Fold this sequence. Notes:
Largest interface: A-B, 33 and 39 residues
CATH architecture of the largest domain in chain B: 3-Layer(aba) Sandwich
CATH class of the largest domain in chain B: Alpha Beta
Strand content of chain B: 25-35%
Number of helices of chain B: 10
Number of strands of chain A: 4
Radius of gyration of chain A: 28 Å
Number of helices of chain A: 14
Strand order of the largest sheet of chain B: 5-6-7-3-8-9
Largest sheet of chain A: 4 strands, mixed
Oligomer: heterodimer
Order of helices and strands of chain B: EEEHEHEHHHEHEHEEHEEEHEH
Strand content of chain A: 5-15%
Helix content of chain A: 55-70%
Structural class of chain B: alpha/beta
Radius of gyration of chain B: 22 Å
Order of helices and strands of chain A: HHHEHEHEEHHHHHHHHH
Amino acid sequence: MNAPTAGLTSAPISPALWELTLARLRLFFREPGAVFWTFGFPLLLSIALGIAFRNRPAEPAIVAVTSADLDRALRSDAQLRPRLLDEAAAKEALRTGKVDLVVLPGPPISFLFDPARPESRLARALADAALHPPGAPPTVDKPVTEPGSRYIDFLIPGLLGMQLMSAGMWGIGYVVTEMRTKKLLKRLVATPMSRAQFLWSFVVMRALFLLMELPVLLGFAWLVFSVGVAGSIALLVGISLVGALAFAGIGLLVASRAQNTQTVSGLINLVMLPMFVGSGVFFSTARFPDAVQPFLRVLPLTALNDALRAVMIDGGSLATVSGQLGLLALTAAATFFAALRVFRWR
Amino acid sequence: MSAALRCEQLVKKYGELIAVDGLDLEVRAGECFGLLGPNGAGKTTTVEILEGLNEPTAGNVEVLGMRWERDERALRQRLGVSLQETHLPDKLTVEENLRMFRSFYLRGRPLDEVLDLVGLADKRTSWTERLSGGQKQRLAVACALVSDPELLFLDEPTTGLDPQSRRQLWDVVLGFRSRGRTVLLTTHYMDEAERLCDRVAIVDKGKVIALGTPQELIASLGGQQVVEFATERPAGPDGWEEMPSVRNARRSADGIALTVEQLHVALPAILARAEPLGLTRLSTHHATLEDVFVHLTGRRLRE
């Protein structure tokens, strides 16, 4: 036997669960696309949304006026930026959205505006106030910029939840179905491999991955947006872990019978879409009518996002999130065993 | 000799379609047994039932003296399986794939021994996707050998491979059998069956239509030589069998094929009758399992 192969014999044969998990990790890190979607995409998304919704001074309302008197009167309010135009040009500017309001001299002074545009209504209210100063005492504005109450503070836990969901669903659902399509599952069940261990290797993989995903996203949010964790880091890791397991289970269940990757992609989207929209990733679930609230509350991603926000923003304790944790743990256990039961191996 | 594998009156139906139609088989311990037949004959369905990957509609299956419904875990430890098509993970190396398969078994052969055996020792650290078709197939067989099985199933192991890769795989199979182990393989290549198999069952339409050693099956034709010829004016198959040393006559693709015992006896008479019809082509070859199949079914294996 030649020298280079000599080392192999001595290398011990590891347990199947370890080898299966190792194979999952290797296959992941050798697939640049998968690495990007898991680690890069959430960062890019948080940068984009962080920029789009960053806290900034309010833009002044742009108002078209047709007389110098009005121009002067409105200029006294810093929130208004009048532009002196003739009447036709002013109306044209309003129609094309270049100005929010047109003020025509009177008497009576008239406001032309589009009530369907919020900034148009705002401009009207500002101009009205500027032209008819009330006798009431002046108010003091307090813009909200404290960490914990900004949009980015709301967004980051939501992105983390979304990330745990999509990584679980795609990373497991798609991969498992592809293995079925390529007859690898059939080949594996022709060996004495334990089927539970095979499915379990995906769950272990997700748990290991979480320990990489979590520091990346949280570290980034802290460095770039100063988003901290108000509560216990350990609790946050615990919640993420249970959440990752729940979506690992759902991913396995979704993939348990799909015969090709098109079917499973459709199923994954079908399962994820209601949660993308209704589980408070980008905006609060409170925006939905009361009638659908009970339904939204039992969605696993709602439970995960609520628990993550409770710990990250409000410093919640284990007791505060026990309901959500229970729901997620139940989801994880139920979907894993259901998947093992109905799984199609050929 | 004891039976490594036995099945009786095996039936598999998919709705109306009958894939396996009352098939009996007995594979002896230590032999290399071939299921030879055209595509769609039911070979793969049969093998997958024997491998415990598919359930028969009816019939008995006994593998290494055990039954799938009772002894699946124990049985899987003792079998090696290579499916007709398996796409092993592309981005695992040869060694990683092999190591993963090894981890499923309680016992097995050292990995480097298996790699040497299939000639992939120098490809150990290559990703599977970088292997040629023949190397991939040898890796698939290596994954079946890594547990040092008593019984090896190979479903169409050389389909689509180049001649050199086929010969390399043949050597692997012959090496395995020479250790006293049992092989069941399916193939639609007659040369493969003749080269590798101690005994062959010819399968057609879900049934065994002939069984024996390759030599026995060829001898059943009555002659060792086949004469094929074509003529300008069509010649019918009748009357040829009365000629000296001609044992059998049938139509071939564009003419007549005769099975002949002694070429030097038969040929003058054949020529005397064929030449007036305008002989355009004549060739002879040693009878093969292909000729046996054509003789039994009137069809060619690769049709």
